[in-house]
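Task: fold both queries, return tokens.
Query 1:
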Amino acid sequence: MGAALVLAASLGLAGAASAGTDDEARAALAKQGRAIFGELPIAAESPDNPLTRNKIDLGRMLYFDPRLSKNHDVSCNSCHDLATYGQDNQPNSPGHRGQRGGRSSPSVYNAAFHISQFWDGRARDVEEQAKGPVLNPIEMAMPDEASVLLVLRSIPDYPARFAAAFPLESEPVTYDNMAKAIGAFERLLMTPSRFDDFLGGDLDALSRREVEGMNTFIETGCVTCHMGPGVGGGMYQKLGLVKPYATQDTGRFQITGREVDRYVFKVPSLRNIEKTAPYFHDGSLKSLPQTIRTMAEYQLGKELTDAEVGSIQTFLGSLTGRIDAAYTRKPVLPRSGPETPAPDPN
């Protein structure tokens, strides 16, 4: 039996199998994929934070500006590097004075339409998330909101830019508006890939092996959690669902205090997964094959063959998306003013 017939048969597509055409099998799989994954949006729009050009441009500057950190040496982009698929390829990221937290920095790409932000879902959206690291003593270490506003108001170009971004407000330079601007910029950080092209009707966008891998991914049960436009990011799940997984991190339990949330984390998106090692909340898994095997064992109770692991890995490579280099390019940041506080390494 040829590869196309095997694919068609495994999908239960008797008509495609009898017709024996690769195009029919691909079309059927693309249709199934659209039902499971939907469509990646161009932007993750929010009625609470309408997108405008002035707000987005301000948010881009703030995203890259290290002066939002106590020592002027850590920006959003330090841990969520847009040139390396929105993270830094480290188990955990260095912050103020080189301190490191206990969790891996997730990618900021395609994150704005997730169910929530952070591994434990403690922030409702990217705007709320943007407020956290700036004041975290391990990350950017600013002592309080007032200190952040002092910096922003002391940089001559920023007040005018805030006024343009929030024209209806009498005092536009606020901590909330800083977060809204960063969030607006992040809401367009999408990375469409050949996978999306395939779902959209370009049946030649994926290779034969990638098509087979997509089928293996679906049939194995990975889509139980990794579904929707993000191929994940849309739900919470217990790590060690069918077999206990050894970790000291209790996940959402630390936020809710509910026993049902012990070891529960937000399901990560698999978009750009080939580029965002190491894996898991603690960055403890170094390779993609190891991660695929571990997920199958602890979440699905399955022991995958080398061929199945390789097939899924091949499919996951098709989720590597296209980065808009012009949109994500570091802008020229406004100069500090005479009243801008000096870096503080303490």
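Query 1 returned. Query 2:
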Amino acid sequence: MADNYKQTSIYPQISMTLFTDSIFLTNEMEGFRHCRETRTTSTTTMTILLCKAGHIDVYYHGEMLRIGKDDLFVRIPDYNHELGPYKASPDFVFEQVTIDAAIFSQIMFEHMRVEPLWWQKQEFIKQNPIFHINDASKEYFEAYFRMLTLQLRDRQTEYRRQILMLVARGAMMEILNYMDKIAAISGERIERVSVNQSDYTFHRFMQLLQEHPHEREVQWHAKQLNITPKYLSEICKDRSGKSASEWIAQVTVAEIKHYLHNSTMPIREVARTMEFPNPSFFCQYTKKHTGMSPNHLRKHKE
């Protein structure tokens, strides 16, 4: 994980901006403005902003939203809506983390394994991006910001990227947990949140990737969904910014890395387990999608 690193203080309660190529954390307006100019307005990032004092008005989804004290603003990658103009009160105090789409997509794919209503909850967040949180939940999110701060400061940690992923995933799960609490209190049924046909098709494609990770042809997935490969790729591109083939490659590469980094299985055995036709093709595939041979990739942990 390459770093573009700036820190204005060693203490998290003092103004600071910390960032890598995929995670941006700030609690100062200069950092907020820089992030908007370079990342936040992009449709390919996820943003979690906790307002601790004052308020900020942000134009989003065709309306001006007010994020006030103890509000948590959650923006997941949305390829049809960008953040617009904003105006902050003089006493606005906040903490914000912005995560790029590559990390969010990995978090999303993992959540779908354990969260049956993940897709509906994702749509719910799009429609309701502001959550007013209680003191207990505020402590949780402040703790996540604190953990991200510590890891972003420490550039010598061998497993830094993996730890950042786990902390980001924990924050996302805490958001989903808070949604369940809200639903329980209000009686709102999240499973009733409507999902349009394109979203449903993309969701089914994600499920197929989980259930059949060794099916690496777009045509096979399209056939299961009763649509053309071209239409499947168009839906994936519109909903996630990635084509169907890019999603298949991402899932395959993640599995390759899992076996190479977490086992001593010979390369030929990894190829057989992942149902590649032969070790040579497996090596070619790995080289094409990672830029490294399996042996080199095994030695290189991100």
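Both queries returned. Flag for query 2: The radius of gyration is 21 Å.
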